[in-house]
DNA sequence: CTCGATTAAGTTGCGCACGATTTAATCGAG
DNA sequence: CTCGATTAAATCGTGCGCAACTTAATCGAG
């Protein structure tokens, strides 16, 4: 009952510590900070790593498809892809059937990097320290929240 | 059992959609995007809003204390606070007892903005669309994850 | 076929976010 | 008291992240 009262008071609270949005913001940044040294060994930033995850799964993706998968704008992806290209991990070529579209492909170096990246998700999973059930619950709630917040 | 197999396969997966870290990253950005138009009416960005939440709770905070509360570096906060000061919402003054430290205080405009901000957390809570139980679970898991990832 | 609408990618400007470094004030062992 | 170590902010450089806009290619109604 005290719990109930406390909970009701939290609705619409302006206290930082009550905000789910802050827990989310802090968690996201703490995770990318944890990734940083691991990814540094691969020569990648965290968003670059996410792009590579997509490319290791399916070769040849358009900028638009990357944007859909990662929920990022071309204004974010274009410069990022330019840096990956400069680093020799990807190639960019206009599609012949639709000259507006740009196909992103892995270079050999980019494909080879996959093996070095194998250990990364396990290391992070370990650091997060959630049980498989907690991990699944968190993913479920985050996807639900994202879907709700993104609609309309 | 198929579930178990599927779950075991997820451990160490390099598929974007299996990664909790990506769900976290996407959720965090989708929430701040949802905040944007609401905060725009207050003349605030999302990180600026978080700073204001702290100041509405306790007047006079040092940059260091803000950094502890928000888990942000002075290299992030200093320019942000300069913008809030330029916007007339806060004042900055060196502490007389320790000239290294800078006390951040609300101006009258900054204090007044609190009333206009009242509706924001409720609107966002509504948009997130989680039940009170899901909200509490999410907060709990995110704080646990942050604590685990941050330690050592 | 044509020309206005749509679509894909890129550019620009601004505000984070953070590591590395700098400047200045305080602390504290000897 | 003193001077090396620590601490608090700020500065600098780089890379996102996104709104607004531009450029160029494709689409499609008439």
TrEMBL record, chains A, B:
Domain of life: Bacteria
Location of this chain's protein in the cell: Cytoplasm
Major site of localization recorded for this protein: cytoplasm
Keywords of this entry: Cytoplasm, DNA-binding, Transcription, Transcription regulation
HTH marR-type domain mapped to chain residues: 17-147
Organism listed in the record: Streptomyces actuosus
Protein name per Swiss-Prot or TrEMBL: MarR family transcriptional regulator
Coiled-coil stretches noted in the UniProt entry, renumbered to this chain: none
InterPro entries the record matches: HTH_MarR-typ, MarR/SlyA-like, Transc_reg_Sar_Rot_HTH, WH-like_DNA-bd_sf, WH_DNA-bd_sf
Stored Pfam families: Staph_reg_Sar_Rot (PF22381)
């Amino acid at each position: 009952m005290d719990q109930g009262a406390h909970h009701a008071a939290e609705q619409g609270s302006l206290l930082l510590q009550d905000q789910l949005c802050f827990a989310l913001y802090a968690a996201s940044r703490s995770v990318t900070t944890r990734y940083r040294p691991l990814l540094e060994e691969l020569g990648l930033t965290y968003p670059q790593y996410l792009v590579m995850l997509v490319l290791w799964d399916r070769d040849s993706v358009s900028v638009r498809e990357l944007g859909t998968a990662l929920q990022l704008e071309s204004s974010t992806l274009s410069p990022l892809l330019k840096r990956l290209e400069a680093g020799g991990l990807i190639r960019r070529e206009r599609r012949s059937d639709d000259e507006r579209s740009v196909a992103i492909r892995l270079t050999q170096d980019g494909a080879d990097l996959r093996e070095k990246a194998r250990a990364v998700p396990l290391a992070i999973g370990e650091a997060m320290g959630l049980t498989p059930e907690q991990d699944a619950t968190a993913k479920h709630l985050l996807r639900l929240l994202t879907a709700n917040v993104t609609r309309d």
